[in-house]
Every structure is written in structure tokens, then in C-alpha cells.
Amino acid sequence: MWELARNTPDLDLNSLYHYLMLATHFRHTCVVAEIQQEFAGFASGVILPRDPTTLFIWQIAVNSSLRAKGLGTQMLEELLGRSYSTPVKYLSATITPSNHASWHLFRKMAHRHGTSIQTTGKLERHWFGPTNHDEELIVKIGPFRSMP
Ligand SMILES: CC(C)(COP(=O)(O)OP(=O)(O)OC[C@H]1O[C@@H](n2cnc3c(N)ncnc32)[C@H](O)[C@@H]1OP(=O)(O)O)[C@@H](O)C(=O)NCCC(=O)NCCS
Question: Which of 65, 86, 98, 135 could form a disulfide with 125 if both were Cys (CB 3.0 to 4.6 A apart)?
Fold first, then answer.
């Protein structure tokens, strides 16, 4: 996961320790995609502490040679299809305005499930300090029905 994040300009690279924590304590809300036993992508998520009906997708990435083949959608469907102590009804994420692939992915999830995608706020550009980071729009997708 760390290697893919490092090689994906659209993603913020977190520490290797961060990915180890995701793979251990947060593994129930993370997924790794493999094709013929080769790592192909990952999605990391957390259940929001103050709203356990919402699964926040922290990062999602697919190896550049394997994009637009449905893997991103499949990973989100896998996470949505799992059972949680409190049923998950919403996905949330933050997306930069220019990340077309990410917008398509989350809009497609809304469309597949006949539900809506809404922008509920933003992480302002200046909150990222001197890192030259674009703003991130906070989106909420759902409600999803018939989840376990
Ligand atoms: C975003 C990302 C994970 C999507 O994964 P993916 O496996 O390519 O997604 P899917 O194949 O399931 O595609 C979902 C939809 O988005 C569309 N799509 C994918 N890439 C696209 C692009 N670059 N531009 C426009 N549409 C795109 C697909 O065509 C598909 O729609 P369709 O079924 O109507 O044709 C992948 O592009 C990626 O790794 N990007 C870099 C990391 C990143 O930006 N992550 C998001 C921020 S955390």
C-alpha cells in the first residue's frame, strides 16, 4: 500500500507505520486487490467514530496499468458488502476538484445503487499549510440499502 501510494501522485503519502496500522487495527475496513496473486490496489477506510453508519474511504488506489477495469468499484463493493456492528448506510470521502477518476468512481457507486452523492463541506486549501495542496471536497454517498 505504501509503495503504491508513493508512486501515485494523486495520493498523499502517509508514513509506512500508518499503513501498518491500517492493515492491523483497521483491516475490517480495508481491502487489497490482487490479480493472479500480484498486488493490484487497495482501499483504506474507517468507520467514523461519531457516526458509525458512515464508512469513510481514506485512500483508494489501483496500479496505473490496471485502472478503468472495474477494480476500484469492486473494492468499494467489497467494503460495503461486509457486515459491521452498526450497518453502514453511507460512504464518505474527500476528493480534489480535479481528480476526475475519483469523481467518476464515487458517482458510479451512487448510480449503481440508485442513491445520491452530495458535497457536504470542504477541507480548505489553506488548512494544508505550506504544502501546496488543493482543497478537498467532502462527499457523502448514500443511503445504501440492503446492506448486511
Ligand atoms: C480513482 C481510482 C482508484 C479508480 O479506480 P479504477 O479501478 O480505475 O475504477 P473503476 O475501473 O471501477 O472505474 C469507475 C468509473 O470511473 C471511470 N474512470 C476511471 N478512471 C477514469 C478517468 N481517469 N477519467 C474518467 N473516468 C474514469 C470508469 O470508466 C468507471 O466508469 P464507467 O463504469 O461508467 O466506465 C484510480 O483511478 C486510481 O488509483 N487513481 C489514483 C489514486 C486516486 O486518485 N485515488 C482517489 C483519491 S484517494
Answer: 135
